[in-house]
């Protein structure tokens, strides 16, 4: 009977969602100029009058935004980054916290203290290739988050790649276990640093998470103000956090 | 200033992950700082905003600080402050509680739909962590699944709102013209998304397991987090969607009241019985919010404040009893102070004269009669009858039955807090203005969409 109700509820939910799909504008028919994101793409939020905009005076962006010039309100070449870490940076702080909260929960629930042993001996190829791959993976991860404001990528994927390197170490070596003190302090200090960047913005520009550094030339490594710094802290934080989760999964409680 | 309410607990949570031992004092520090910030900006009486990163609304994210969000934040932080006074309750959950505090504050203060989803996600995950205390893993897992699905549906609602209006800002969405079919989709999805945290009928299966599984979860989830979630119900259905979808909420809330009370009556476990009662009270609040007028909403939050204070006392005492005694018969003969506060809080829950619950229930019923609604008062009176049944039964069992020779030390801090709060309930009966004034201001602020839109969107100076 319980299963019957479950099927009924699920069917109702699917039917409802299916009906709601009809209210979405078909692909290619939406007028992007109506959306706030049009002005994120055009980097001209500051020149738009919000009161006129909400009253229906849609100001279609027209001026050019050329790679390699300077003086824009947002300096990232990667437009996703400009939304994620500049226009809507507060959401990203929230998402960083979501991951942090989950990692804290995993730590509290698993709570292992001793490295689990599976009794397998890694063979020659695995051992040697780990040694070759490991620095490359870490370097790639760092590249991904350092260039987050220029190319696709950023703190979250970069950090995940670094954690993959730690996972590789765990799979290839029974003796290896992560130094939890180092990973926890890195995680905590990088998380606090993001909030501190926000507070510096509050002190310098009067708004939390204000971009208090000059934007520079679009496309150069040192540009986009505070964005690369934030992405570096996110990358290190996500990397150490997910490494910590990997380590906790490979640990067991005593006795 | 307002952004500090979120930034400080968040910063201290990140710091305390490096020094585990500092988590408890830092949680206390965060709670004290937040209370200080709030008391320093007592009832703003206008709509103030804080613009994140200096991007003006509707383009950037903004926090909204008006009478409604102030009152909600005050209640939310007050209960966190009370919990932080009891270090034995916090134990190793200090980091999670700080994150929960930051998220609940963010959820209350934000003026952005997607941002509220992000905070709801943090709230769900930390609440699940708190719920897993004392190896209550199965129920926490159930909560995680339900909360996860509700979160996705909340996100889906936000996506629908964005496709319909092109904006995520609540003030802008509330003034945009949305087609009827989109509005049905958006409000239904939001009702489902908030339904889990607001404990609405088909989605409240997790409540008894989570509240009944340990002593920390009901104290914080049943008070602060419930208040934050029910505030959002008022904000979305009152301010942003001007009462669309209220009919569905009203029907679900009435069913919630009946089912919650009947389940509470049948329940043999002390914590679970009052968990179901908290479901029923959430139903009363949602039904009242769905009425949509400023007075009805104000009374809803007045009732919710009374209920939260009473529930805090009840769950605090019940949690102490359940985890210190195997047999609860006559246990209050050994703990007279706890017993007196528990009885006062339960009588307030029923709406017995001399206690705060009477003031809010009476006012709600009078207000409903003046609106010519006779169904809801009937349901409420029936619910009160059932409440009398189980409240008297539990009080008789805990005061007068044959006691056993088990003995636990009197918890001094918890006892004092329980006594102070239950005396506060008496004080509210004598002078309802203590809660009623703030709750009415909150109701007015929630119902006044025009003022909200004006306050958020006319601030062109952008928080500089």
Secondary structure elements and pairings:
The complex is a heterodimer of chains A (255) and B (464).
Chain A: H1 2-21, H2 37-41, H3 50-54, H4 79-87, H5 89-110, E1 114-115, H6 124-146, H7 155-172, H8 180-205, H9 227-249, E2 251-252
Helix pairs in contact in A: 4-5, 5-9, 6-7, 6-9, 7-9, 8-9
Chain B: H1 4-16, H2 23-40, E1 48-51, E2 62-65, H3 67-84, H4 87-90, H5 94-109, H6 113-131, H7 137-165, H8 170-175, H9 180-195, H10 207-211, H11 217-240, H12 246-266, H13 270-289, H14 294-322, H15 336-350, H16 356-370, H17 375-400, H18 412-430, H19 433-447, H20 449-457
Antiparallel strand pairs in B: 1-2
Helix pairs in contact in B: 1-2, 1-5, 2-3, 2-5, 3-5, 3-11, 3-19, 5-6, 5-11, 6-7, 6-11, 7-9, 9-11, 11-13, 11-14, 12-13, 12-17, 13-14, 13-17, 14-15, 14-16, 14-18, 14-19, 15-17, 15-18, 16-18
* SS-derived structural category of chain B: mainly alpha
Instruction: Walk across the major sheet of chain B and give the strand order.
Output: 1-2
Could you state the order of secondary-structure elements of chain B as H and E?
A: HHEEHHHHHHHHHHHHHHHHHH
Average pLDDT score of chain A: 86
Give the termini separation of chain B: 13 Å
Distance between the termini of chain A: 42 Å
Radius of gyration of chain A (CA) equals: 23 Å
Number of domains of chain A: 2
The main β sheet of chain A shows up as: 2 strands, antiparallel
What kind of oligomer do you see? heterodimer
The percent range for strand residues of chain B is: under 5%
Share of residues in strands of chain A:
under 5%
Low-confidence stretches of chain B: 460-464
Which protein chains are joined by the largest interface, and how many residues does each one contribute?
Answer: A-B, 61 and 66 residues
Category from helices, strands and their pairing of chain A: mainly alpha
| H-E order of chain A | HHHHHEHHHHE
Query: Shape of chain B from CA axes?
Result: globular
Helix content of chain B: over 70%
- What is the CA-based Rg of chain B, rounded? 21 Å
Strand order of the largest sheet of chain A: 1-2
Helix content of chain A: 55-70%
